[in-house]
Amino acid sequence: MPGDSTLRFPLAASIPARTQVGIVGAGPAGLMLGHLLHRQGIDSIIVENRSRQHVVERVRAGVLEQGTVDLMHEVGVGARLGREGLRHRGIYLAFDGARHHIDMAALTGGRAITVYGQNEVVHDLIEARIETGRPLLFEAGDVGVHDLDSSRPRVTFRSAGAAHEVVCDVIAGCDGFHGICRPTIPASHQHIYERVYPFGWLGILAEAAPSSTELVYSRHERGFALFSMRSPTVTRLYLQCAPDEDLGPWTDDRIWSELRARLSTDDGWRPNEGPILQKSVTGMRSFVVEPMRYGRLFLAGDAAHIVPPTGAKGLNLAMADVYRLSGAIAEHYRSGKRAADGLVFREGAGTNVAGAALLVVDDVAAAPQRQRQPVRPSSPARRTGVSCQFDRCHDEPGRELLRRAVRL
Ligand code: APR
Fold first, then answer.
1. For residues 126 and 120, what is the distance between their CA atoms, to the nearest angstrom?
2. Whole-prediction pTM value?
3. 20 to 30 Å CA-CA from 304: which of 188, 190, 292, 332?
4. What domains lie within the chain, and their CATH numbers?
5. Ligand 1 site: residues with CB under 6 angstroms?
């Protein structure tokens, strides 16, 4: 049951001493990676420090790009998505009191976005994992990764009071932005690029039927606002605010009044209102570390890069990362030696998985011309040199990475 926080897989006694791939984190990246590897006959253990209930109920992203939807169907976890996902042909851009429809499907040969909560994706992937019988462990304590530059890297953790160690061929750091894998990489091997934006989003979930079938992005003199949804009965809405906005003065009435002011259009359209189920302030940050590997540790998803929620991109990038990583790991086992494209076991610095460079490209495209500045390493302590600027990534390798991502 998704709500059963006591459910642990596997039982402590069946935790293996050795596996092929040790996966840290049971978010979308870790769970999808485990599933992709399973389909290629590769064993793994997934070690997650939170409870199953927490992982499934956490409110996160909710927009799947076509590539993610296709992947979910292709690997047999798309049945409920097909039934319950809300497919959108396009979006509305609103300004000066009018909404303008952008028919993305018509412009992209039928590709569309699908609204389906990350928690639903995670729920479906957990079910699929349990079905395989391969180990998935919740509520692991003191998770650590070791000997990353050897051929026998290890994952250690505590479960049900006992200490465990699993020797792996490869470790995948899918433990999100605040995980332990990225900080385990020596600072001298990390190049970090980061931009913190001077605004945040005040987001709410409301029990109200969406009043538009597609998202509305509104530019308004009072600040940006976004109308979105999670289901036929739940609306998701955002207001641009200060990055450190105090939620205290934001009563429900004030939030609705501000949303009406920024979103209503001259044709009489406005969001339906209802009880507010949740409110929070999200800061905006772009962050990427490269290379996304150190020895036998490979970072994927939020562990390696985050983008602001403005583009609904993070979950989709995470899926793209593990799709490529699983292919490279499978190639390694198939060929019995280093992967042909050098993605997995190429030694030395400079190895790059598409996602990292892609984010930089992605950010260039998103940033207004005047804001395209060199990226700053985030912390002098972790600085190892700035080898890339956003604008420089408009070169041919950057464009090739972008083309590859579009194909995913
Ligand atoms: N040990 C084990 N697991 C950990 C640890 C740790 N020390 N630290 C964090 N985790 C777990 C988290 O609890 C979480 O379940 O790793 C998982 C990481 O999941 P996400 O943060 O969802 O990251 P990811 O799988 O990369 O998903 C992509 O992009 O834009 C976002 O909302 C989107 O969260 C999504 C993300």
1. 10
2. 0.81
3. 332
4. 87-110+195-284 (3.30.9.10)
5. 24-30, 47-50, 55, 60-61, 118, 143, 174-176, 179-180, 301-303, 314-315, 318
